[in-house]
Write a sequence for this structure.
């Protein structure tokens, strides 16, 4: 397709504006949304991250056989947060009824405790017990150790350096 120049000095071609754009190093700004390259990178990133998360879950211990929501609830409270059950339900995108079942099970295992709110005695706050804190820390250590071993066995020092260089980009994607 033929390029035509806008009054801003940018070229228009195939539905894209090419010029000094703030979002891409090569100056491309998608007029109609993500480019084919954006979609290609997104698919590869989604697939890679998904496979890594599944592998970490499979390769690390979960003796208590906790569900993903139960483990995530513990992670939200780590290390010393106190949250209302409704806050956790909202963060986990589950109903308060479902969250009640999660909370009751975690309390049976002595991983969390309910305490009355200091501000409103009608409300309760959840926090980790010492055993809950140990559980979260051990799971995190197990995953980090597995990942460190995989990096050691499968990647060269240069590849590890490249991963370290890419981490700020992932952080930017997550944090905005």
């Amino acid at each position: 397709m033929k390029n035509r120049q806008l009054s801003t000095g940018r070229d228009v071609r195939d539905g894209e504006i090419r010029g000094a754009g703030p979002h891409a190093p090569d100056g491309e700004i998608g007029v109609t949304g993500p480019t084919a390259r954006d979609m290609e990178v997104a698919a590869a990133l989604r697939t890679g991250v998904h496979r890594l998360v599944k592998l970490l879950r499979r390769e690390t211990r979960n003796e208590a056989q906790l569900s993903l929501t139960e483990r995530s609830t513990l992670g939200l409270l780590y290390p010393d947060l106190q949250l209302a059950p409704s806050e956790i339900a909202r963060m986990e995108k589950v109903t308060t009824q479902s969250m009640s079942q999660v909370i009751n099970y975690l309390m049976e295992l002595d991983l969390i405790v309910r305490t009355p709110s200091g501000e409103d005695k009608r409300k309760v706050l959840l926090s980790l017990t010492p055993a809950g804190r140990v559980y979260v820390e051990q799971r995190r250590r197990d995953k980090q150790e597995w990942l460190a071993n995989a990096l050691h066995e499968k990647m060269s020092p240069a590849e590890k350096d490249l991963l370290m260089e890419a981490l700020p980009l992932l952080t930017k994607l997550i944090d905005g």
